Amino acid sequence: MPFPIQKIAAFFSNHLCCFFISLFAVSWITFIYSPLVCAVSVDIADVPLDVQLQASAPNIMFGIDDSGSMDWEILTNESDGLFTIGNTGYEYVFDNPGDNLYTSGVYSYVIAGDNRRYWKSQWSEYNKMYYDPKVTYKPWHSDMPDADPDMVRSHPMYAENYTNLNAAYYSLSFGSQIIKDDRDSTGITKSDNWVLYSYSAAYGEKDSYTSVDGSTFTWIPTIPSTETYEVWVFNAYYDGNDQNAEYTIVHAGGVATAYSDQSAKGGEWDLLGTYTFNAGTTGSVTVTRKDHSTKGVYTNADAVKFVKVTGSVNIVNAHYHVYSQSAGKPYLVNLDGAITYYRYNDNGDDYIEPGELVLDGSPPADIVTGRSYEQERQNFANWYSFPGTVGVAVGLFVRLLR
Length: 402
Ligand SMILES: [Ca+2]
Ligand SMILES: [Ca+2]
Description:
Elements: H1 5-27, H2 34-37, H3 49-53, E1 83-85, E2 88-90, E3 151-155, E4 158-164, E5 168-174, E6 177-181, E7 188-190, E8 195-198, E9 206-210, E10 216-219, E11 227-234, E12 245-251, E13 254-260, E14 269-277, E15 284-288, E16 299-301, E17 303-308, E18 311-316, E19 319-324, E20 329-335, E21 339-344, E22 357-359, H4 373-385, H5 390-401
Antiparallel strand pairs: 1-2, 3-4, 5-18, 6-17, 7-10, 8-9, 9-16, 10-15, 11-14, 11-17, 12-13, 12-15, 19-20, 20-21, 21-22
The structure holds calcium ion (CA) (2 copies).
């Protein structure tokens, strides 16, 4: 007996409804109940259903490294996180307060002497371990006192190992400078026989050289006022350069002669001496190609700078470097009884040389923290004694999760 048309319609109506209900149920992990509503075949899921039903709860794993490198004061993107100068990778910024884990050989290198002028080792953007003025450093626990701002403990629990934050880190003269380059359009006179050369390691990426005895090259600065200046000479490096290049300095007191080993001191500023120059253009520096036993293949003429010695800066241990985006320059901030700012005019070698620091009484706003001197000094001391390393990192991470 044929089905009445009403029953056929009811069958499709009910079963199609169940079919769509089942599909919906599958997607929401209630597939198991759908056969109770109606029996309709569906696609089998590609993913095991128990995985869908029992997804793992989120887990956080803290891996805390207590290996020897945790004692280091340097963390850069360089190989092994070190700070490399020449062929040496350095691990420590400050003198050993007595508790360095490594005191000799590899892993123990402390940046010392003139190498401390490589400023990026004391800049938190490069050395992530260094003091960051944007951060407020606090004792590890609210019951612990702030660090002593002068004689700061290396480890807050032990009094026997400390660093004097007032002690000198390094000293340097500062002031203004006048640089005369061999390619300047004025203030240069020279004899024939100088070859013009383009060389990336030269000052201004160009220099001049000669192999003809008796050739002379003279730099004539325009001196704004009669002052005492340091005279430095720069020569592009070449191992065949004159090892005893002769310079004649015409100054306010007469004429002086100085010598530079252009081979050993190539690619860096070499101090010829300190002289007083009269205002104007009466002073000069001349290099002469001389015939002598160590004259090398070439005598070089590249650049000379005159640094007005207006003072010196005693950079104490409590100091840091910061970069001003608005000024487009790095600054040295010295915490030596006041917050003292020095603008850093680098010649491109990331190494602070005489004349490159200029005292700045009106530093750009983007590097001023707003802390008083005492507050900044306290923050620096807290950073040193309560290092912002593993403990702080974990604490900040947990705080972010809350
Ligand atoms: Ca040059
Ligand atoms: Ca420099």
